[in-house]
Amino acid sequence: MDVSIETFYLYIKRVHTTATADKYRKSASIFVSYLRDINVSDFTKIPRNALQLFVVSLIERKYAPASIRLHNAGVQRYLRWCRDQGVSLPYLAKPEPPKVDFRVRGVLRRDDMILFFSACNDLLREPTRTAIMMMPTCGLRSNEMAGLRLDSLQKVSILLKDGTHKTCLSLRVIGKGNKERFVPLLDEGKEIVSQYLLGWRRKSGSEWLFPSTHGQVKHITPHALWIAVAKVRESTGLVMSPHTLRRTYATTLWRRGVADTTVARVLGHAKLDTLYKHYLNMDATDLSAAVQEKGGRLLDV
Question: How many CB atoms within 10 Å of residue 13?
Fold first, then answer.
């Protein structure tokens, strides 16, 4: 019977993304270290209130509420896997992790985006430059953007309300849980990737849209995207991360009148709550405009 954290990690990598597996492995490691601190080496003798005490220990160590909830989820997944391996675990009371104050962080406004694109052109090299510039035009996660294949790009011809046809680009993405979805590129994204394909990308015969320029690595890494965003942030003073670019895309779609259910599906969210809690940055102007467009008077004229 092997219930080592590394074996657990290899299992999770087969059923979830590598990013999720990394988080669960870290959570399990912190929990096992905590058990050693309280002199528990036999899993069958874990105290009934161990999970709650573990949460308390994280609070005392100044972990953020969101991190505590994440580690709690990772530990419970690890313990469930241990049971599946045949470990006779005692009943463990469910803990009460601290509440998280959900507040949507900022998005980039029009002037911010102009500054952002200018800095990308000045500071970044291909293929990272194009990958970063595309992110606010499609809202992909860093790992999804880094791992796009060349055949992920698909042309779509649509009929507009005025009777004209328009050719757009869409991305076929395999996201969390190995689920497929199609993500429309905004017009700027189509222009950016078209220039990239006719320019720097023509020299590469790789199957990846953003092939790595370092040795045997197949494609650029999510870490490379984070470094590139940090470089732009330091140069411009913009408060941003890769997720800011994802929120910018989501909020842009909502402001253009795209239904929230469609926005959630494009982003790859199983629950609509996730969209409102974490992505749509609706300020007073947005909300007032939405009301006024439907009529702002209490009494009909």
Answer: 15
